[in-house]
Amino acid sequence: MVATTPAEEAEENRTLSAPHRRYALSVLLVIYIFNFLDRQVVNIVAEPIKIDLGLSDSQLGMLTGLAFALFYTVMGLPIARLAERQNRVKIISAAVAVWSAFTVACGLAANFIQLLLARVGVGVGEAGCTPPAHSLISDYVPREKRAGALAFYSLGIPLGSLAGMALGGLVADAWGWRAAFFIAGAPGVILAILAWLTLPEVRKPAERGAVHTGPSLGDAVAELRSKSAFWWIAVGTSIKAMIAYGHIAFYGSFYLRNHGEGLAGISSALTEATGIALGPIGFIGLVLGLLIGVFGAIGAFLGGMLSDRYAMRDARAYVFIPALAAGLSLPPFIWAMLTGSTVLSLTLLAIPVLLSSVWYGPVYAAVQSLVQPRTRATASAVLLFVVNLVGLGIGPLFVGIVSDSFAAAMGPAEGLRWSLIVISLAGVIGLATFLMASRRLREQIVS
Fold first, then answer.
1. pTM to 2 decimal places
2. Is residue 9, in this structure, part of any structural domain at all?
């Protein structure tokens, strides 16, 4: 175990007062909501983009996954190292401005290459958000509240997905898919200024300069290499993320292809009942957004709450809880994909959506607790590098490639259905890796 310096001990014990902590966590949550809103809006408008630009499912998989993930993951580690040495608040603020500008640029794209490059820019910007945010949050709160605080921040994933799906679908129905990107990206400038001016950086300037004498990148990597639990957690989380990102990228296309008549009937009935014009894209975007947002938020909250309750008694709860969720999510998802009823399918989908977000708090808290305070941003970046390169980079691309392959024999609707089912079966492997992490987790936690 690496010895903790007095400076690290002081940093570990320095937390914000309750009112300041609530404000800071709320601002970071809003930032993360926009992070995922700008990232996920492309998913609900994928089908209109495909038709307008003449794309294949594989190209959609690149736009929603690999193009974003490759640069997002590559940039994450150097930005995290910068966060160990510089003002984390300013890094986050600059990142918000960059990814928001490139989101707007997505709406200006005239072909696949231009849209691909704009998505790369979004990924570069968003790489500057979570590693410094995780490091800040771990300074803001005491250890016994860390899983809950990180789970609260992680609510940005389901809530941002809700906003992205709902906003993207409704705006695309009314004004087209390009307008969805304009509206999603525009508020980022205001949010960046708010964060720059009001978020507290609890490290003093002298302490940030002193980090140069702390662990180098080599030391940080060496510390992580000694933590077998970290790597098992990274593998399990990568598999969970691969499934989740692969699914979310194609949910809209799945329902539009396989439940088009059902969606049209329901949206028409709602239009007649409410007087609000709602097309199939707007309806499914709203429903998927609510499912992912509401049930994803419930799952994230439950995961954080259960971890804070049980991990102080047995740290293995950090991985037992995600393992249980992975096992329980598979049967209802397969049923949701196979049923011919639109209403039943969407109802069943709520269960795996809830369970797919349970891991956020437990996993991030475990990783932050496995390393010394000065290595936290780097540990978060390494985890995100693995998780996003495998999960976000491979998940949507895998679903797209398999869907195109199956479509030759089954047609595009059935090909996508079975592609989504195939990738969900990897959840069994994810369950096993979380259980492997439990074998060494308790003895390797240091902070």
1. 0.73
2. no
